[in-house]
Specification:
There is one protein chain. Helix 14 runs antiparallel to helix 15. It is built from 18 helices and three strands. The N and C termini lie far apart (about 105 Å). It is mainly alpha-helical and about 400 residues long. It has a three-stranded antiparallel beta sheet. The longest helix is centred in the middle third of the chain and has 58 residues.
Length: about 400
């Protein structure tokens, strides 16, 4: 039987500590209450923790970190267990034992220990902000207050599943263009560093005037061959400088705003962000979160500082007493159809249901645009490749053509 270390207060209010053996922390708490001690904290004894073999720092460094998929599965399993009437501590214990990820198992163990010590589940989750977002924690807090925690976990699972599917569709659509661009970059480097210098030596032996295009290619090649370490260092420095700039608040705001204006990807990013906003706000309102608090939570879910600032403007307007419709119009990011649906929802009191429809509409548009993303990018790649081949052909074969014509005249 496991040993637990406890800390509590006796009838006189004095703090007491000790260890007891029991089946679980609930049994230990019952023993303490029977002896007149009010438990404050109950943990597995250090001796037992050492016996189970805590992972070393090297093991923790090598192990897989908890991912969004782990949180998604955790939400689904919690919904199933709570709906079946399993107590939350027992549900967490079962998930800890069945978890295939040791890091996720330790997170669940920490949640159990926090609940044992008297914390709420939402407060326990807030100890792991890298895993549970403010949006996730807010909905769990609402579920605890309303007694509908199992429904909240189901909604969170559906929300995380949509996020995962959207990211995977975008990655799949960008895979082919990315491979093409990488192949073109490698081909350009080889031609610039290996092929053109070889042709340049041949042309120098003939001692003839080279065409303008050839002189440009040879000049670029010579510059690349002699200065490629500096060019590589400049490229690496530019990447680090860009990442440092986007890590600042003004830089991230400017970059997020620029992404929305990109020719093809900008429309997809905007629609996916607004779909996330509409679904998140609908979940918050349906769960009973007040509009002002819901907008504050949802603003941090969008992952786009430009849209986040617009949602915070909506929150400030609602806080001043304005309607959600009026504040949505001032943002300038919603289409007239969406604004009309918000107006109807505002009037009928079914804003959460209509926001779900708005989210589904945006999700449908994202799905359609993502499916056609590769088809839209291919013409641009073909044109770029054709221009590149034309430049190389003119630069390499024009001198050969001129030399051939000169030899024929002789």
């Amino acid at each position: 039987m496991p040993t637990f270390a406890y800390r509590g207060r006796n009838a006189r209010g004095e703090q007491v500590r000790g260890t007891l053996e029991g089946a679980d922390s609930g049994a230990i708490a019952e023993q303490l209450f029977n002896t007149g001690i009010t438990p404050v904290e109950i943990d597995v004894a250090a001796e037992r923790a050492a016996a189970t073999g805590e992972p070393t720092w090297w093991d923790r460094l090598r192990e897989e970190k908890p991912s969004a998929l782990d949180v998604m599965l955790f939400s689904r399993q919690m919904h199933t267990l709570l709906r079946a009437g399993v107590p939350i501590l027992k549900a967490l214990g079962g998930l800890q034992e069945s978890s295939q990820n040791p890091a996720m198992a330790r997170v669940i163990q920490d949640l159990r220990q926090s609940l044992d010590s008297g914390r709420e589940l939402s407060a326990a989750m807030s100890r792991h902000p890298q895993l549970f977002s403010p949006f996730y924690i807010s909905l769990v807090r609402v579920g605890e207050a309303t007694g509908l925690l199992e429904d909240v976990f189901l909604r969170l699972f559906e929300h995380l599943e949509f996020e995962k599917e959207t990211r995977e569709r975008i990655k799949a659509a960008l895979r082919y263009p990315t491979f093409v661009i990488i192949a073109m970059a490698i081909a350009l480097a080889i031609i610039n560093i290996v092929v053109i210098p070889a042709f340049a030596k041949v042309f120098q032996n003939f001692k003839v005037d080279l065409p303008l295009m050839t002189r440009i290619l040879v000049g670029v090649s010579d510059f690349s061959v002699h200065n490629w370490p500096y060019m590589l260092a400049l490229l690496i420095g530019a990447v680090f400088a860009f990442r440092a700039w986007t890590a600042t608040r003004p830089g991230k705001y400017a970059w997020d705003r620029f992404k929305l204006r990109l020719p093809i990807a900008g429309r997809i990013i905007l629609q996916a962000t607004l779909a996330r906003f509409a679904r998140s706000l609908a979940l918050c309102l349906k769960s009973g979160i007040p509009a002002v608090q819901a907008l504050s939570v949802v603003a941090r879910v969008t992952e786009n500082d430009y849209i986040q600032q617009r949602i915070e403007q909506m929150r400030d307007g609602v806080e001043r007493g304005e309607s959600i419709l009026r504040t949505a119009v001032t943002t300038g990011v919603f289409t007239p159809m969406v604004l009309q649906m918000i107006a109807v929802g505002d009037e009928t009191g079914e804003l959460d249901e209509l926001l779900f429809e708005v989210a589904e509409m945006y999700e449908g548009e994202v799905d359609y645009d993502v499916k056609n993303l590769a088809a839209n990018i291919e013409p641009i790649l073909i044109v770029f490749l054709a221009v590149l081949v034309l430049i190389l052909a003119l630069g390499v074969f024009l001198p050969i053509w001129d030399l051939g014509q000169t030899m024929l005249r002789k």
